[in-house]
Amino acid sequence: MRTAVVVFPGTNCEQDVAHALSSLGGEVELVWHRETDLSGFDGVVLPGGFAHGDYLRTGAIARFSPVMAEVERMAAQGLPVLGICNGFQVLCEAGLLPGALIANRDLAFICRFVDLEVVDNDSILTGSAEIGQRIRIPLNSYEGNWVDPGKTGRIVLRYLGDPNGSQHAAAGVANDGGNVVGVMPHPERGVDELLGSGDGRVLLEGFLHSLVPA
Length: 214
Fold this sequence. Notes:
Largest sheet: 9 strands, mixed
Distance between the termini: 8 Å
Structural class: alpha/beta
Radius of gyration: 15 Å
Helix content: 10-25%
Number of strands: 11
CATH architecture: 3-Layer(aba) Sandwich
CATH topology: Rossmann fold
CATH class: Alpha Beta
């Protein structure tokens, strides 16, 4: 099963994602944002970073990259689409997930481990976890405050505590079908206990288990 990890100008977590998925047995290829054919892949990850510098609005320019037409096609076909941090923001800007990401409540960059709770395990990210399971992984963001005025978002992970003011303490949100998920903390940075936590493995294992042949 092959996963495409999209690289936008300014992306800085693509190698982390590739390493984490590969260490769990996944086959990963980095794909430049101008790619127009992802038909050879079984799933796609939009990693964290600063796509196109985020000079306008986080993810607003990246959503027009040529590769996004393929990401939208894969989402419509029910294939796994995962956005992490900035990738979450891009999915919201593209309309593949509800809501938007705004500046953290305290207008400060957050860089620390946070504790999460799995509240819905019927998604490509949480399918290998148990409801109520607690997970500790790093959060690294300034615009990580998820808001959903329409209250249509399906929350799959919640913060234990309130680090950034996110609506209903949402840390991870899925579409109705559960095949598109955005998560603000970084599971790929939590796969090695020697670096602080291995809890992210259960989330990335869920993603890999959700892959089906293209």
